[in-house]
Amino acid sequence: MNRTISIIIGLLCCLPVFSQAALLDSLKEELANAKNPSDSLILLYNIFDITHTDESNPILEEIYNLGVREKRYDAVNQVLCLLSSFNSQSDSMQAELIKRAESLPKYDSNRAALLYVKVRSASVATKRMSSEEKQEKLLEYLTEYRERDWTKQSDIYEQAESLFMLVNFLSQATSGDMLTRYLLELQEIVKKIDNIYITSLFNSIASQTFIDNGMYEAAAQANRDKLSLTEKFDNTPEALKRPYRSHDGMLFNTYLSLLMCEEVLSDEELDEYYNGIVNIERAKPASRFSKSHMRRAAIYYHMGKKHYAQALPLIKEQLNETNPDNERRRLLAMLIEAARAENDKTTLLDALDEHNTLLKQHIADKADASYRELQILYDVQNLRQINASLIHDNQIITIERQRAITVAIIIGLILVIVILLFLWRSYSKAHQLSKDLSSSNRILVNERDNLKDTQRDLIEARDRAKAAERVKTDFVMSLNHEIRTPLNNIIEYSNLISDSVTGDTAPYIKRFAEIVTRNSELLSTIANDILNGSSTESSNMSVRVVPASAKDICQHALLNMEHTLKPGVKLVFTSAEDTDVIFNTDPHRVEQILRNLLDNAIKFTDEGTIKLSYHTDNVRQSIIFDVTDTGTGIPAGKEEEIFMRFGKVNQNIPGNGLGLFVSRQLAQLLNGVLTLDSNYKNGARFMLEIPFSA
Q: What is the DSSP letter of 613?
């Protein structure tokens, strides 16, 4: 028997759920058979009204799309506000809603929706900002709002947006007089807009702030405005067709906020708002309204009605729970009032003690808030001074610009006059020249004959120049051969002297021998560069293609250059390949190019690393050698100039500027390419690409 009763009770409890599901299925069936967009819109609203909040987004999107198609923009703007409210934590969704609102026709309903979404989006973004960013934004909005003359501004939505943004950031910094002053100013603007969503948005920001600051009349008025607009909205033809629409949650919170302003409410208002809360609770006993909320409503109601005996135990019970400091201080004040009225001295003494402690803290918090407001005003004043200075500078710049424009106009007029005079004079000359045309023709014939003679002379001069160039090249090559032999002798005998000397003078002699050797090698390099430059230009240089080892070429080049390294510079060799690479080329020419590149890197690297490496490119069938250094690098715009004959970036660095020129000529001789990697910024990187088969 008991089991049967339990089953029946369970079924009765589930009946509302089954009924709601059946109703939802019925509405969806009606929607599928709707005959016109108006019916579809009402049915979608009804489905939305009975659907759980977590499942509301798809329905709202359907309403939005239908409204856009049918140009029902009031419905579209309403849905934008609802979507913004249900997706309050999604930055991407808020940004998308702003784009949608901005794309709609501009009238009051749309301006209000755009304002609503912008303010909600800014509120979400503010929570993710650092303290420094919030302070910077606050000063920006405060300075802008204070310096603008809003009496000449007819766009009330722009003023409302500016105030909402200012209040948003100001509420993060202070809860004092400055915040309440701008909230009161915003309250007057919101009344003029007369939109339920904007009013609700303002009420959610301002109501508790007014109450915490003891501004009960302002808080009550904000909540009355919200109730008035809600009632007005509920009486519209569209709202009357929505029987499942419920404001219970909003009404409960609004009534509770009004009861918290009990000091300025009449007895009739106290009864109306308290009875409203009781009726909502009775209609939905299993709702989200907690016992704490109902107790708070009863406390404010009984205190407003002076029912101290009923209020006293409720206040004590509420104080046993966790309450914000502002509300706890107020509850203690009401407890003191009720205990004094009921002559409960024990309760009165305990309440006075804790109330005094909280009151001291409140006074300290108010002083801190006042200090922060003074600091904000000081910062704003500094910004205004900076702005004034910038404005003054801009005025000076504008005056200078206007002066320059005036001078340019005057100069332009003078130029026009000069051009006109020139044209007139040219016309006169042309007229005169036309008279001498026949004489000029005879002169031109003579000039033609002279040009032919000149052409013959130029051809002869060109041939003589080519012969002289050949003589010069032969001379340079002969001179280089003559210089190289004594230079090599100097190097060898310097080393011999250094090795032969012993005793105390040996270090000095070795040092002098090293200087002689280094300078001799420098002269030898210059001679080689001149010889190679002449050879490549005269096409006398030959190549001998044989199978060559990439690893051997690199090691020979490194071995020849290691002794020239500066202290603190490392020479490193790496390979991206697991095995040695054998390719057909002239290994001596490749080594010559690498030695030139290494020599160039050594000259310009005072510390760090010079790296020689190679890797293969199977797609291009080539091997690529890299010479990378950590030196001074190549200045922008000099990328090609360094490959020119005698091209040098720094004239103070030893060298004749022929090394890179000769290297590129040799690379071309081997059917390869020598380039500078302009994207490398930590020094310089040269890349030599040689085909596998030259």
A: E
- The structure tokens listed for 189 are 């603007």
- Residue with tokens 């001149």, as numbered in its chain: 530
CA angle 130, 132, 134 (to 5 degrees): 70
SS3 for 502?
A: coil
User: CA distances (Å), 332 to each of 340, 345, 365, 485, 566, in order?
Assistant: 12, 14, 18, 109, 83
* Strands 569-575 vs 608-617: parallel, antiparallel or unpaired: parallel
166's tokens: 């200012």
**In the Cβ-directed half-sphere of 371, how many Cα atoms lie within 13 Å?**
6
Across 315-329, 502-516, 545-559, the highest mean pLDDT is recorded for: 545-559
Phi-psi region of 638 (alpha: psi -120 to 50; beta: other; left: phi over 0): alpha
Which residues are 688's β-sheet partners? 625, 674
Task: Give the residue among 626, 625, 628 at the shortest CA–CA distance from 605.
Answer: 628
Handedness of CA 254, 256, 258, 260 (dihedral sign): negative
Torsion of CA 340, 342, 343, 345, to 10 degrees: -70
Task: Check if the beta carbon of residue 47 is closer than 8 Å to that of residue 24.
Answer: yes
The pLDDT tens digits for 407-466 are 889 998 898 999 988 888 888 887 777 777 777 677 877 778 788 877 887 787 777 766
What does the pLDDT average to over 603-612? 90
Question: Helix, strand, or coil here: 322?
Answer: coil
- Supply the angle between the helices 37-50 and 2-32 in degrees, to the nearest 10: 150
Quick one: how many helices (H) and strands (E) in the chain?
A: 23, 7
pLDDT of residue 600: 87
| Residue 243 DSSP class | T
pLDDT over 50 (residue 286): no
Q: Rounded to an integer, what distance in angstroms lies between the CA atom of residue 125 and that of residue 141?
A: 15
Alpha helices by DSSP H, listed for 194-307, are: 196-212, 216-234, 237-240, 248-259, 267-283, 291-304
Burial of 158 (0-12, 13-18, 19+ CB in 10 A): middle
536 Cα distance to chain centroid: 53
Query: How far, rounded to the nearest angstrom, does the alpha carbon of residue 15 sit from its chain's CA centroid?
Result: 55
SS3 154: coil
Confidence (pTM): 0.49
Q: Which residues pair with 19 in a beta bridge?
A: none
- Is residue 173 within 8 Å of 134, Cβ to Cβ? yes
